Amino acid sequence: MTGLAPPQARGDRYKWVALSNTTLGVLMSLMDASIVIIAMPAIFGGIGLDPLDPANIGYLLWMILGYLLVQAVLVVALGRLGDMFGRVKMYNRGFVIFTLASVALSFDPFHAGQGALWLIGWRAVQAVGGAMLTANSAAILTDAFPVQQRGMALGVNQISALTGQFLGLVIGGLLSEIDWRAVFWVSVPIGVFGTIWSYRSLREVGSARVARIDWPGNFTFAAGAALILAAITYGIQPYGGHSTGWSNPLVLGGIALGVALLVVFGMIETRVAEPMFRLSLFRMRAFAAGNLAALLVAIARGGLQFMIIIWLQGIWLPLHGYDFAATPLWAGIYMLPLTAGFLIAGPVSGSLSDRFGARLLATTGLLLLAGAFLGLMALPVNFSYPAFAVLLALSGIGQGMFSAPNTSAVMGSVPPGERGVASGMRATFQNSGTALSIGVFFSLMVVGLAGSLPDTLSAGLRAQGVPAAVAAEAANLPPVSTLFAAFLGANPVAHLLGPSGALSTLPPANREALTGTEFFPQLISEPFHHGLVTVFTAAAVMAVIAALASISRGRSPLTERTPA
């Protein structure tokens, strides 16, 4: 009769099971954060909403940002609850919630605004499940792996999460060609399989801590962070004749109140016995520097992702003969060098950081990322794809070199009993950075377009025979509509001229030129490039500051190594 495997063999098997399952969980969670971006035109068409109507911009933004906002607000609290009640228990329930929400999303019974609100609401519920997965996955791996393999494990986990963001773009484009509901259905079989697998295979390795829930801290943090991120979301939208909403008293008041609540939150956390947010962890240089660098990289990465999508879908692909309806799918495909860079550099750099420490690898990766931003900024709008692909791959390699070692260093710097809350805090910085990037970079781009697009658009329309009054009216519509048209891979010219009926009165050649694949991309190329330079300059500066933070983290504690 075969005896039981020795304890070390059983432990070796378990750590690989934990890595496989948590990798699936974070991949699914982060994939769903981006899958709706490409599929948004199909989703809006399915529920009967015009994505280019300025009145519907709020629905579009909340469909994308609501998921990120909920995750940013809740991951710390859910990581803390994992420390208290069991990380595996919280993780398993996250799989269940995520899967049930995916089912509800695919059965939207409403249309128009009500249909959009149904999707936004259930996306928020889905984000709760996703937050339970991401908040506890890194802590589960840190418990399961010895220190000399931890960087590799966290690198695989982290890179699969980042890869999920970009795979979501490709998968969203593919599935939206079939049916918009398939965008949500795809998570259901993955979620069912992952739920059964996690309940049967994962076990608590770390010890749960008996503690009280910090209700005042949870409330002030959630309210403060939600107010700031929501205000930034509305800051993108036009207000009172301005191209953005940053002069809106509600936006400014929301940011001020949110900051005030976070100050109160900080005061509470220094006074309660069992704080939700361990501010004392920031006294550890490796933890503080690593999280600062991660926040800056998340903002820069979000700017890269959204600007590249606009660049490809709104300009480059149409100029190269792709129909606007096909650009979302092909944009995801042409961005694959970025994903490949993640997949190559992440696990390799994670393993190397186990041997040589995180500081050199992470800092070098950030400098490569800054160089990629500068290279992209130097490209012409109608670039040569091989040069573009090399820069995307360089960006992916740089991010992979940073993310895996940085995650390992951050998680390895905290005591075992604090790994759940540390994982949640790390995820909060990343999710908040992505949400902030949309507000920051979209605002920069909208302001840049507002300065030159109206005159360019008016002149271009008049040159095609559009009456001056109609051209002026179309040119004065909010530039955010034009930006989102490019973002969604749509030609807005017919939409702009539709209410006046001017398009139908033009000669066929002019009408074909206006609605073809070249007029709109050529029209916005110069204004877009001005905004692109601003965005990528800001992103490069953030990457350099992140590199300075990374180099200041100190040496990794390699003396902690224990036998595998």
Describe this structure in words.
The protein is mainly alpha-helical and 564 residues long. The chain has 21 helices and no strands. The chain is globular, with a radius of gyration of 24 Å. The relative contact order is 0.13.
Helix content: over 70%
Largest sheet: none
Provide the gyration radius in Å: 24 Å
Strand percentage lies at: under 5%
Could you give a quick summary of the protein structure above?
This protein has helices spanning 7-47, 57-85, 87-106, 112-144, 147-178, 182-185, 187-201, 215-235, 249-269, 285-319, 327-334, 336-356, 359-378, 385-412, 419-463, 468-475, 479-487, 493-497, 502-505, 508-515, 519-551.
Provide key terms for this protein.
single chain; 564 residues; mainly alpha; 78% helix; 0% strand; disordered N terminus; disordered C terminus
Helices and strands, with pairings:
Layout: H1 7-47, H2 57-85, H3 87-106, H4 112-144, H5 147-178, H6 182-185, H7 187-201, H8 215-235, H9 249-269, H10 285-319, H11 327-334, H12 336-356, H13 359-378, H14 385-412, H15 419-463, H16 468-475, H17 479-487, H18 493-497, H19 502-505, H20 508-515, H21 519-551
Helix pairs in contact: 1-2, 1-4, 1-5, 1-7, 2-3, 2-4, 2-8, 2-15, 3-4, 3-7, 4-5, 4-15, 5-11, 5-12, 5-14, 8-9, 8-15, 10-11, 10-14, 10-15, 10-17, 10-21, 12-14, 13-14, 13-21, 15-16, 15-21
